[in-house]
Amino acid sequence: MRRVRGIGEVRVRVNKPFEPGEWIVLIAANPQRPRRWIARVGEKFSTADGVFDLQGLIGQMPGSSVASHLGQRLFAFRPTAADWVMHLIKRQTQITYPKEMGYILVRAGIGPGSVVIESGSGSGASTLLFALAVGDNGHVFSYEQRPEFSQLAQQNVARAGVAHRVTFKVKDIAEGFDERDADAVFLDVREPWHYLEHAVTALASGGTLVILVPTTNQVSETLRALPALPLIDLEVVELLLRHYKPNPERLRPEDRMVAHTAFLIFARKHSL
Is residue 15 part of a domain? Predict the structure, then answer.
């Protein structure tokens, strides 16, 4: 037990030392040139700064550094959810970005113990983030019509060590969802308006429907279909994330940004 000032006695999780073979993120120390690489503990890793022997990280705590044969240093950390999505998963489809996923989790109230249904699985980016959020007491049901995409999503989720939290189903959702009383249903499909009744049927009363589409005409078509369903608390949003160069003497935005990625539509199911 540790005492944290302002909130009394709390139980603080102590991070575990690195183990052989686990995935890590290596980050350069220069804040003006933030570079990062993905590697595995125990292997050798090469950059323009030399060869790094990651065997020395075994048993070390996250935040430890490792030096190359040229004397350059990188700092090692365990991957966050954003690291997994942006750097570690293999992609064959467009992914859901962390800037959208963070708001989805908060807006839909997805957390430990939640039951989430999603379609489609794609490369498994949203599947992975949902699985990390629901914990071992929750579960994710991921639907995908194309077997090759479902297989890729399964591989990506397994790499993150949370495959036991996900049930993958190769199925056309035009036939409906098998589950009922889900806390949230997430539709990431081309024509979500065709599947709204199935999504609402699978939702628990009070559950949240989340829809992700990339274009305005898809938003409009979806909005036309929503009034016929027992849904309220409707919201349409677009989220923009703008990075700044971390230089206190010349603070300004980065020259490039990932601007539009998707529109999000939210609604809650009521019981009348």
Answer: no
The pair phi, psi for residue 131, each rounded to 5°, is -65, -40
pLDDT at position 12 is 36
Cβ proximity of 183 and 209 under 8 Å: no
- The reply to whether 39 and 148 lie within a common domain is no
Determine contact, residues 24/56, Cβ cutoff 8 Å.
no
Residues 166 and 214 in one domain: yes
| 67-126 residue pLDDT tens | 999 988 999 999 888 888 777 666 666 667 888 999 999 999 999 999 999 998 988 889
What pLDDT is recorded for position 2? 38
- Report how far residue 28's alpha carbon sits from residue 73's, in angstroms, rounded to the nearest whole number: 7
User: In which order are the strands placed within the sheet that holds 263-269?
Assistant: 166-170, 139-144, 115-119, 182-187, 203-213, 263-269, 231-238
Secondary structure element (H or E) that encloses residue 53, with its range: strand 50-53
Sorted by sequence, the CB contacts under 8 Å of residue 270 that are 6+ apart come out as 205, 206, 230, 231, 232
d(CA 46, CA 24): 14
Please report, in angstroms and rounded to a whole number, the separation of the first and last CA atoms in the chain: 48
Chain centre distance of CA 33: 25
CATH (domain of 239)? 3.40.50.150
The amino acid that residue 217 corresponds to is N
Cβ-based neighbours of 248, under 8 Å, separated by 6 or more: none
Whole-prediction pTM? 0.84
Q: What is the DSSP string of 13-27?
A: PPPPPP-TT-EEEEE
**Paired tokens of 241:** 């994330």
